[in-house]
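Entry for S-adenosylmethionine complex. Fields follow.
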Amino acid sequence: MAQAQTHRPVLLAEAVSALAVKADGLYADGTFGRGGHAAAILERLGDRGRLWLVDKDPRAIATAHERFGADARCVIHHGSFAQLRDLAEAEGLLGRFDGILLDLGVSSPQLDEAERGFSFMREGPLDMRMDTSSGMTAKEWLSVASAEEIARVLREYGEERFARRIAQAVVRHRDEDRLPETTRALAELVAEAVPKHERHKHPATRTFQAIRIHLNRELEDLSRFLEGACDLLAPGGRLAVISFHSLEDRMVKRFIQQRSSVGYLPPGVPVAPEGLRPTLQRVGKALRPDEQETRDNPRARSAVLRVAERLA
Ligand SMILES: C[S@@+](CC[C@H](N)C(=O)[O-])C[C@H]1O[C@@H](n2cnc3c(N)ncnc32)[C@H](O)[C@@H]1O
């Protein structure tokens, strides 16, 4: 089967320009994917610059090694960007990053490779893990989760109106030993369980998105990363986050708002100390792809880029 190995980077020029790359700076790309953004950052880095390349997906990391393994400026880490703060602390690099980029969600190869199980358009095993070296597959989760848990996940992460019906259908199939084994079988189960279909949207779209977000702990990882982000950045360091989902974008927006306001108190600080200053400053407004980019790359459609700068 033909496998797409390419990923067209979204908001490439905008995100890289937002990082205001300094030739000798230290940067992190927390979502390497296939390296579109990383390559553009490296073009701006001199010999003394450094770029950490991080991804949960072993295949993304294999590409990072192939493309940039021989580049002395690159440091490659397999893992979640949620661990960046701990990794940086272990290396004595807290407060030293001049820029961090997150381009959230799934890559085109993840969606296009049937055996990853992310897409109901392609027949594949029910996997949906970004990190195929650990954690539960979608099939394993559906075989143990309660109807309540499934319904909650579909509601919270997919905003699925028919979450209960879908969850009950899954559990019914499970009780009858007919739990779907493949992406298409799950998509059909959902299509049958949903009484009203939205126009221009497959009835399983929300279910697949929700299960993916849940299994990969996408919101938990983002929240953990954001908690440590200010500790990672050097004064003047930039944080650029591209989100594809309103739940993620809301988290990023609130985080930047809170940390840019004088009234924000870090957890555990009950009263604002004299002279407490905001830690971040918002840079520009939220940016979305223009019409041309959305036409050329439909996956860019829902992207939003938010940028902030670490204050001294
Ligand atoms: C949209 S793609 C990034 C594409 C990349 N900017 C490029 O130009 O090729 C998102 C990537 O982030 C990775 N990813 C998602 N959540 C992650 C996390 N918490 N930690 C590390 N990588 C993550 C996915 O495995 C995927 O490869």
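NOTE: Residues 12-109+218-310 form a domain with the Rossmann fold fold (CATH 3.40.50.150).
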